[in-house]
Amino acid sequence: MEKNKSASIVSKLRPALVGFVVLTLICGVVYPAIVTSIAQMAFPNQANGSIITVVQENGTTIDVGSALIGQTFTAPQYLIGRPQGTSQLSPVSEEQQALIKERVVWWQALDPENSRAIPGDLVMASGSGVDPNISLEAAEYQVDRIARVRNISAAAVREIIDRYTTRKLLGLWGEDAVNVLKVNLALDGRIP
Amino acid sequence: MNQIIIADSLYLVILVVLSIPLGFYIDKVMTGQQVFLSAVMRPVERMIYRIMGIREEDEMSPKQYALAVIFFSSLGLIFVYALQMLQGGLPFNPENLTAPSWDLAFNTAASFVSNTNWQAYSGESSMSYLTQALALGVWNFLSAATGIAVLFALIRGFVRTKKTTIGSFWVDLIRISFYLLIPLSLMFSLVLVAQGVVQTIGPYHEIVALETGITQSIPLGPAASQIAIKQLGTNGGGFFGMNSAFPLENPTTLTNFLELLAILLIPASLCVAFGKAVGDNKQGRAIYLVMMILFVGALAAVTVSEAIGAPLVPGVLASGNLEGKEIIHGVGTSALWGTATTAASNGSVNAMHDSFTPLAGLILMFLMQIGEVVFGGVGSGLYGMLGFVILTVFIAGLMVGRTPEYLGKKVEPFDMKMVCLIVLVPPVFTLLGTAVAVTIPQASDWLTNSGPHGFSEILYAFSSMGNNNGSAFGGFAANTLFSNVAGGLIMLIVRFVPLVAVIFLAGNLANKKLVAKTEGTLSTSNALFVGLLIAIVLLIGALSFLPALALGPIADYFTAIT
């Protein structure tokens, strides 16, 4: 009698327990293993963080960053990206307005000759905090300064910016964007 | 603005066009018909039934179905909790992450088992690869499959007459996983990887920043496989803390578009599948239309507010509200994503909702507060909306003095009790959680913003957890003992009380006989009914939440600096 009872409980729980184990193994082991294997074979660079590797003067290679993760640039010879970090502040709050005004002052001090209005993305932080891109307007805003400091033509700077600009999807979804790290590596002559 | 209008419209057209064949496909799968995947999946399916020791044709009573769901989900809750607590000593942990606090582990387990994916943790600094894939990733699949399974139990309730069973939870669960979620996720994750979403078991990559010389850690992991199902299954829990705003989770305009599409794809398809399954496509179309109208209205309001709602600063170009948004997504697809992710109970983000303008924030909150029925969670969104449909039929019946009926089934007191549980449990616990939170003296320490926007952070958090959404106003410090425990309990209650009520409603409906359609039968597929249903959904939401919204986003709007 006792044995029968426990046997019937086990037989009742069996579908749940076995189903749980099987589905956990398939969704949690087999599925990610298949995706990882294919990814590592077919798309090794993308699957490992889109790392940019450059050859140094002594012939060795060095990783200089991820094409998808923004780095901090503040020097005038570089294309400068968006403020790092995420504020989580309301755009209509005084704290946020004060932050923006501080950044406006910083930009004007960096390049006093430039009296144009500053593109919004240069004074507003991104969501990820590490946005690798800036808008076309934000890149154009900085062309003259970079050309002047590096003593090269504005056309040369624009040419590099254009090379590392990605376009919106089918001209509709998202925005055109300039990859800051790639432009700076190209300006330094470390990537084509 | 024109570009945004065209892009949004085309997005919706593509969604509708894809949802029709997928909806028919889901109906076929759930009724055991032959589909193109049958040749591969049918033998696998049969083998799994055999080792589970069940027969496909053995069906469950409502009580058995509910017990199966609860027991299965409880196993998940325990497993997800245990794996987090033990992760420090387990493999696939290259960053040597240790166990989170017990309350955070409980909150996370409750969150993933309830298809909420509220995250009080940040993936890259808290969860090992093993925990992500084997616990969180798995429950992305299984919580989604559970929601769809229960929806089909309810559909059987409408379709069947004089029956005591509503299908087998195990068969439903297996079919949804193997014919729908796994194949779609597999395809989708490979596209994501090709575009730059990471997928590796190797350790984080350290690099030295070009100008500053500071060492920067690039977080990695088996992300793409998890992000695919996170978008498709209205889960929304990011592999990384910043979710799909983080470039390694959503690197290009193409991934952004596809991840956006994936948010609404299955919830929209289920409207089509519903119509097909109850044998009257017009019924599915009416509900689809209600969701679409509410969605488009919300989308327009959010987009306009984000484009022109932020104050202009002297010396800065008018570029729309870019705070908290990635450049590649811009105002347009960030507003679209925000609307889609709160309409569906997805909860993933590609921009920071805390930094949305007050009126946009209000709409996002309200989409959650009306019970996640505008597309909503996979399965749960539609069964929630069907709760509102029955409520609407009931109210209309009262007005004209006729016995209310829906799809040929009389709506009786027991059914209305279940509907009340479905419709009222989420708002009650949302408000309760918010009310208790604001009485805690330390509450102001949890906030980034002050004043009405600070209150909005709390209201948003409990609206999100109280409706199984999972998105957040990121300025809210979520990892506190109170928020973890209270939020965890709320997520479980608002998921499983309505879900069990749906199962018993299904059982009660299946048991009834069909009543003949007459001249006086209220049509539930015409324009009048569509309007009535929209009004009821908005009314219940407004009655529950207007006072709270007035203290939060509405006050925020009127006190905003301009």
UniProtKB/TrEMBL annotation, chain A:
Instruction: List keywords of the entry alphabetically.
Output: ATP-binding, Cell membrane, Hydrolase, Ion transport, Membrane, Nucleotide-binding, Potassium, Potassium transport, Transmembrane, Transmembrane helix, Transport
The protein's superkingdom reads: Bacteria
Q: Does the keyword Disulfide bond apply?
A: no
The way it spans or sits in the membrane comes to: Single-pass membrane protein
GO terms (molecular function) for this protein are:
ATP binding; hydrolase activity; P-type potassium transmembrane transporter activity
Function according to Swiss-Prot or TrEMBL: Part of the high-affinity ATP-driven potassium transport (or Kdp) system, which catalyzes the hydrolysis of ATP coupled with the electrogenic transport of potassium into the cytoplasm. This subunit acts as a catalytic chaperone that increases the ATP-binding affinity of the ATP-hydrolyzing subunit KdpB by the formation of a transient KdpB/KdpC/ATP ternary complex.
User: What NCBIfam families does the annotation carry?
Assistant: kdpC (TIGR00681)
What is the name attached to this protein's record? Answer: Potassium-transporting ATPase KdpC subunit
The organism of origin for this protein = Acetobacterium wieringae
Gene coding for it: kdpC
UniProtKB/TrEMBL annotation, chain B:
Q: Tell me the compartments it is located in.
A: Cell membrane
Q: Native species of this protein?
A: Acetobacterium wieringae
**Into which family does the record put it?**
Belongs to the KdpA family.
Signal sequence segment: none
Give the protein's function.
Part of the high-affinity ATP-driven potassium transport (or Kdp) system, which catalyzes the hydrolysis of ATP coupled with the electrogenic transport of potassium into the cytoplasm. This subunit binds the extracellular potassium ions and delivers the ions to the membrane domain of KdpB through an intramembrane tunnel.
What molecular functions are annotated in GO for this chain?
A: hydrolase activity; P-type potassium transmembrane transporter activity; potassium ion binding
TM ranges are: 6-26, 65-83, 133-155, 176-198, 257-275, 287-307, 327-344, 356-375, 381-400, 421-440, 485-506, 527-550
Per its UniProt record, what Pfam families does this chain match? KdpA (PF03814)
Q: What is the lineage of its organism?
A: Bacteria, Bacillati, Bacillota, Clostridia, Eubacteriales
- State the GO CC annotations: plasma membrane
Official protein name in the record: Potassium-transporting ATPase potassium-binding subunit
Which keywords fit this entry according to its UniProt record?
Answer: Cell membrane, Hydrolase, Ion transport, Membrane, Potassium, Potassium transport, Transmembrane, Transmembrane helix, Transport
Membrane topology for this entry? Multi-pass membrane protein
Going by the entry's taxonomy, the superkingdom of the source organism is recorded as: Bacteria
Its assembly, as annotated, is:
The system is composed of three essential subunits: KdpA, KdpB and KdpC.
